[in-house]
Amino acid sequence: AQSVTQPDIHITVSEGASLELRCNYSYGATPYLFWYVQSPGQGLQLLLKYFSGDTLVQGIKGFEAEFKRSQSSFNLRKPSVHWSDAAEYFCAVGVSRDGGSQGNLIFGKGTKLSVKP
Amino acid sequence: DTEVTQTPKHLVMGMTNKKSLKCEQHMGHRAMYWYKQKAKKPPELMFVYSYEKLSINESVPSRFSPECPNSSLLNLHLHALQPEDSALYLCASSFRDRKESEQFFGPGTRLTVL
Questions:
Q1: Percent helix, strand and coil across chain B, each rounded to 5?
Q2: Cα dihedral sign for B61, B64, B2, A90?
Q3: What is the pLDDT along chain B (114 residues), one digit of tens a residue?
């Protein structure tokens, strides 16, 4: 079955510390992977995406993610967290409908990031 | 223009009211989506439109009625809603309805059903 798991419901880091948010996916074919961020009461903003090629993907706001096929993981990282990074982070995989080219996003349950001053 | 706009931002309605949510994009995208998001949960897909035709209805109750009048507009008509329908309703669009397509989300409409 197609699924995305984000093992950490809530993470708190100190401002300036490094961050890693975990994401594991289950999908039989080539995964199309996304990380979105959502501030309270707002829509989702795409941070980065992986389709193929270089397994280390750079995104906006200083975020990066590494795709590891052997571990079915797509973890999000940032070397130094800012207070404005406090938000909900969703990992998602694009999956095919009915085996065709049309597809949907399947989201993980999200990880809430809190930042301590 | 790289944004998806949604109106209204907030909506309070009674269970007998009829209201509509509106979504607009001018990025030339031909796929548009409605999602429902409850607090502390990920978005749940409700409807997908591809080239102005309904492509997916994820078993959504008939009190939610989507409409795509043209390639830039997406509406969600609401009638006889229940309090449990209170949620953030998100619209999104993508270049095409494909599994690799990046979806652009609007800010959402916060709906409260009394």
A1: 5, 55, 40
A2: negative
A3: 669 999 999 999 999 899 999 999 999 999 999 999 999 999 999 999 999 999 888 889 999 999 999 999 999 999 999 999 999 999 999 999 999 999 999 999 999 999
Q: How many CB atoms lie within 10 A of CB B38?
A: 13
Buried residues in A5-16 as b, exposed as e (16+ CB within 10 A):
ebeeeebebeee
User: What tokens does A97 get?
Assistant: 């409908």
Determine the length of chain A.
117
User: Which among B6, B41, B103 is the nearest to A105, CB-wise?
Assistant: B103
Residue carrying structure tokens 């978005």: B43
- State whether A104 and B42 contact (CB < 8 Å): no
Distance from the Cα of A38 to chain B's closest Cα (Å) equals 10
B98 interfaces chain A, CB cutoff of 8 Å: yes
Chain A residues touching residue B45 (CB < 8 angstroms): 104-105
Host H or E run for residue A106 = strand A103-107
Amino acid at B65: S
Cβ distance of A94 and B100 shorter than 8 Å: yes
